[in-house]
């Protein structure tokens, strides 16, 4: 490790109430905040637009267009940007579908209901982009528990309304499911 | 400025697509993420619990218990913690009231509807904590536009449902209002 790299220790700075990473060399405080993931369930011709990941984690598995919200971006703009980046797709956002919380990863996810408004193609982070009818969704090959949740909640919202949803009872998005519709948990 | 302090310049790191603050001395990348504010509109005896700020910005003005979500915290836990810290109050959360976005500040706010479940008193960041009947709310002395929004949306949710709400049309939470119920804008 270069002698120039920051050398962080974890302590509670004066006047603060929470442990922060503070550089031993210069006192720089590296505030870590939870991250906001924005994404969408995009309906297209009666199917759902999905992306097969070309990057880790979960490369090769199927996901929804989603990613980290950037500075000075609204969540809706972020969800549109991610659909453009990952699926080369323009989308029209309808409403908030779900707010999920994954405290282990310090993540809050805002997932929107949307409609496809253009063609689509894989962006640099996707191997394939495809529109799946509900029955054809590759359930065993979904990338993350929250992809399960969002697909099920989209189904429920389309049938009965009720959006936005939160985490299914008893789930915290920790690990990939082995079976049940909502994903297994630690 | 100490010669040891990080010396950040703004550029797009290799393999990235967004401008980051990168230390000229050692290459440390200071990823800046939007921040999540969690808070609540707390009903108590037909009134709303409010806190008069003891700290800047907007010291002396009235606000709702709210603050930054911490690492590994769910938004609901964060809203409960903020009510405890700012108003020494336990609250019972009912539902999500609103998701506001303030892109100028890179903030996303998750505001919950809640009920007071204990006594209350000013915490270290509050000069006073009070329960106001609707007519007695100190409207000219509210700290932030989103406090206006949340109070109005609570009123609407109590009367007609419809939560969660988003920013009122045409608002982005930029500056404090001079008059209208939703706050003036840049
Ligand atoms: Zn340092
Ligand atoms: Zn440095």
Automatic annotation (TrEMBL), chains A, B:
Domain Nudix hydrolase: 33-158
Biased composition (Gly residues): 171-186
Name recorded for this polypeptide: Putative NUDIX family protein
Cross-referenced CDD domains: NUDIX_Hydrolase
Molecular functions (GO terms): catalytic activity
Composition bias type Low complexity, residue spans: 160-170
Region (Disordered): 160-186
Pfam families xrefs: NUDIX, Zn_ribbon_Nudix
PANTHER family (UniProt xref): NUDIX HYDROLASE 23, NUDIX HYDROLASE 23, CHLOROPLASTIC
Lineage of origin: Bacteria, Pseudomonadati, Pseudomonadota, Alphaproteobacteria, Hyphomicrobiales
Origin superkingdom: Bacteria
InterPro entries associated with the record: NUDIX_hydrolase-like_dom_sf, NUDIX_hydrolase_dom, Nudix_N
